[in-house]
What we know:
Chain A is an alpha/beta fold. Helix content of chain A is 33%, strand content 12%.
Amino acid sequence: MALTGIALIFLAVLATLAALAATVVTWNRGRRLRPVLRPAGVLATEALLLVTAGLVVNRSEQFYPSWESLSQSADGQPGTVAPDRPGDLDRWLLARAGTRPQQSVAIPWEPGGWTGWHLGAAPTVVVPDGYLQHPSWRYPALVVVTDGTEGWTPAVQSAAARAAGAAVVVFVRTTPATTPDVLAAALPGALVRDVRVTGRRWVLVASTADAVVAERAVAAAPGRYPAAVLVQAGAAPGRPGAPRRQPVGPAGSAGSAGVLPAVLTHLPAGIAVTVARNPAAALVWASRQTPPPLAAAAPTVAYVPVHRHKRHPHRPSATIPAGGVHVPRQLHH
Amino acid sequence: MSPDSFTTELLALALAVVSAAGLGLLWGAGRGHARMAVRAAAVLACLLTASATAAVWVNRQVDAYPTWSSLAGSGNAADSVATPADPAGAGRIVSMTVPGKVSGLSLPLYVYLPAAYAKQPGTRFPVVEALHGYPGTPLQWFHKMHVAAVLDSEMAAARMAPTVVVFPYQTPDTMLDTECTNLVNGPQTETLLTVDVPAAVRARFHVRTDAAGWGLAGYSAGGYCATDLLLRHPGEYAAAASLSGYATPGIRVGDGSENTLYNDVWRLKHLPVPAVALYLACARTDLAPLHSTVALARAARAPLSVTTSYVGGGGHNSATWQALEAPAFDWLSASLGRPVPQAGRTPGSTPAVRAAGGPGQPVGAAA
Lengths: 333, 367
C-alpha cells in the first residue's frame, strides 16, 4: 500500500473512527481498568487523527513519496562518478620534469589535427607548479591568443604564466585563417584529453589584434569562457612583481588602459571582459576569474536514502551561535 | 530548551498523556455546570497538547521557530556571537544583523567562515548565499542538513575552494512566504538578498566583491530563489545551485509578475539569457520540482549553461537535500572564482578594467 495512496488515507480514517467508537463504548465499562482504558482510547484516537492529517498533507505535498523515503538508515547505492582520468600527457610531462616534479613545465604541444587549425606555430602548454604532485586535481585553463606581432617572446610568456599561478596556460599563435571554432571547440577538446583541465570556466586572453576572433569564440562558448581579457596593443611587456602605477578609481572605470573595443561590448550579461596593460597583468586577472585546482566533485548518490553516517559522520563541527538570533517581526513595506 | 528541541517534544508528548489520563479521571468529577466545565477543560487540554506535540514535531523538521522569542515575535537579534574554539579544520559560524539600508529589512544572518579564513587575513574569499525553504529558517541548514560538517569535509578534501557561506533569512515573518521577491506593498526581500546582504558581508568580511566570486544555493523555495535571483542579477552572481527548486514562485507578488518576470521559464523564453551557470538537482519522486527542473532545462539556451542531477528514491525532505548538498556545493565552487589576494597586496597585478556586464551593470535585472 502506497504511503501517498488514497487507500492508506481511507484506512487511517476508518481506524480513527474505530478508535473513537471503541473509546466511547468502553468509556463507562471495566471500573478497575478505567484509569487505563480511557486515556489509552483518547491517546489512540488523537494519534490516529494526527496520522490521518499527516497522510493527507504528505499526499498533497509529496514530502515522503514512498515508505522507503521515511527510512534514514537504509544502505544506499553509491553513485557513479567519472573515473579520475589522468591527462594523456601527464606521464610524459613527469618524465620531462625529471628531478623537479614540483615545478612548472612548458612544452610545445602538437595534438592530433592541430595542423588543420591554421596556427602560426604549435601551441605552448605550461602546467603550473605542483601540477605533477596533485594527480587528482583538475586545473582551469587560460588560453592566450596572439598573432605574434605584439612582443609575446618566450621570456614574456614564461613570466606571464608564472604570474597566473595555479592554472594551465596555453599560448596560441593565430593567423588570419584561424577560426573562432578552433578556440571555442577544437583546441579545448584536445586540451581536455591531454592535460588535467576542467571543462568550463576558462578565460580567453587575447591581444587586441585578435579581439574579433576572441569575441566570436567567447560568444560561441560562453560556458567555457565566461571571461575574456584583451592585452592592450603596443603595451610594454610587464615585469611581474614590479610595482606599477595603478590607475586611480574602482575597477570598472575605463582607467588609462584604454577603452574596451566596441566588438566586446555586445557580449551577453554575465561575461566579464576587461582590458589589461600587459601580459602578466592580464593573466593575473584571468586566473582570478577561475576556480583554484580542485579534486573531482563528490559523487552524486544514485538513490536516497543513503547511509548518511558513512558519508558525513557527526564529528564535531562549528557550533552555531546561540543567544536569541531570530527574526523579529517587522512592518511590511 | 528551544521549541525545536527533542526535550520540548518529549515534554509535549508527556503533557498529552497526562491530559488524556486527566480526562479519564476527571470525567465524573463535580456536579451540574461544574462537571460540564471540567469535562470541557479536560477535552480542550487533550486537543491542545496533541496539537502541540504535532506542531513541535513539524517545527523540528523545518526549524521555522528556533527560539521562543521568534515564536512570540519580539526581541532583538543578537550580533556577532563568537563561537568557542572549534576543532582543527572546522569552519566557524558567526551571526550578525544585516542593516537593511536599501530594503528597509534588518534581519539576522549566519556566516560560515572556512578554516582558512582566519589564517589568511590578506585573502578575499568567494561567497555563496545559501537560501532556506518555506516555512523555515537558515537553521534548517545547520540542524537538518549538517551543512557546516559538509562544507568542512568538502574543503578539507579540496573538492571545494575555501568559501564563505552566508545564510540569510528570506522573510521578516516566518509564516509570510516571500519567495525572495519584492512584494508589491510588502517586504522587499529581493533587494535585501541581492543588495543589503552582499553589502553587509563585503563591509564586514574580507570576501570577493565581483560577480565571479558570488554564487547562490537553496533548497525547495530557496531553490526557486537561487535560480530566480541568478537569472535576474547576472551582474551580481556567476552561478546557482537549486535543490528541489521550482520554476515559479507559487505566490502572488501583487502585480501579476509571478507569471512573467518572476516565472523563470517565461524569462528564458522571452528575455535575453545571461551567461551564467545553473545546477538543478532533485529526486525523481519529487514531482513538482522534477517538472520544474525539466521545464527549465528544456527552456534553457546559450549562453546559459544548465547542469541537472537526479536521484532515485528520496522526496521533498531534508534527507534528500543532505544527500544532494555536497555535490551541489562542489559544483558551485568549481563555477566561481578562487580566493584572491586583497587589492594592493600584489603590486602590478590589477589591470585597469572596464567590465562589460560586470558588477553594477545587471542586464535584464530591471526588465
